[in-house]
Amino acid sequence: MAKNLADELDSMKISGPPSLFEMPTEMVYKIAGKVDPFSRLTVRKVCRNLRNVIDDTDPGFKKVEVDLGGYAGSHRLCLTSSICSYIYYSPNSNNPGCTVERNSQRKSIEKTQLNAILDDLAVIVKNPKLRLDNFVIVSSCGNSKEFVEWLREITQSGSLLHTKRIRVIDCPGDLLGVLSHCKPGFLEAIEFYCFNSGKIDEITNLEQWKRAKSINIDSR
């Protein structure tokens, strides 16, 4: 394989600088690995080939926090690699859809707040090489069922969510269902801060619960 790669690179020197589509797949993977995690989310939109490579590369995030609790009227997605970066999803006042903001850059789109944040989150969660240290959910009663259904569809189409710790804050009972979509054995710590613990009995028999090393349930 190394000899074939060298031969391809030599031929490119003769014919001129290669386009991205002409580069060997191995080289495209190397390039993708050098791109910072946030830029990958943009680069994958360029073409199908890049999207396939990016989606088969470790996303590079170690902590994901999704806040559906109405932070200052907005939903919020926090993605952490070496640093934490926030993406805000705010309702538009005069027209349908929402405004997405990151690093003071704003863009108005036709999706609802919930659909927009879940679509962006799906790009990361669907990646089979994602390995998180922390997955945090801050929810509200109005969005809990939709979130659990979304996560169920995501995990049915691929692998379970690989995270060492799951932390759910302000969750109604419905949101306890997210636990069944985490990878048992890989999941080490469970933290639930919920309105009531009425549905706790439904998850204590899950393999994720039994194999966790640390469990903290705070019922308010």
SSE order and pairing:
Elements: H1 2-15, H2 25-34, H3 37-43, H4 48-54, E1 63-71, E2 74-80, E3 84-91, E4 98-102, E5 105-109, H5 113-125, E6 132-138, H6 144-157, E7 163-171, E8 189-194, H7 207-211, E9 214-219
Parallel strand pairs: 1-6, 6-7, 7-8, 8-9
Antiparallel strand pairs: 1-2, 2-3, 3-4, 4-5
List unreliable stretches of 5+ residues.
Answer: none
The outline comes out as globular
Helix content: 25-40%
The helix-and-strand class reads: alpha/beta
Radius of gyration, rounded? 20 Å
SSE ordering: HHHHEEEEEHEHEEHE
Strand arrangement in the largest pleated sheet: 5-4-3-2-1-6-7-8-9
Strand content: 25-35%
Oligomeric state of the chains in view: single chain
The number of distinct structural domains comes to 2
Q: Got a strand count?
A: 9
Number of helices: 7
- Quote the average pLDDT: 81
How does the major sheet shape up?
9 strands, mixed
End-to-end gap? 59 Å
Write a structural description.
The protein has helices at residues 2-15, 25-34, 37-43, 48-54, 113-125, 144-157, 207-211, and strands spanning 63-71, 74-80, 84-91, 98-102, 105-109, 132-138, 163-171, 189-194, 214-219. The chain has 220 residues and is α/β, with parallel strands linked by helices. The protein has 2 domains: 2-54, no CATH class; 63-219, no CATH class. The chain has a 9-stranded mixed β-sheet, with helices on one face. A hairpin with a 2-residue loop joins β1 (63-71) and β2. The longest helix is centred in the first third of the chain and has 14 residues, at 2-15.
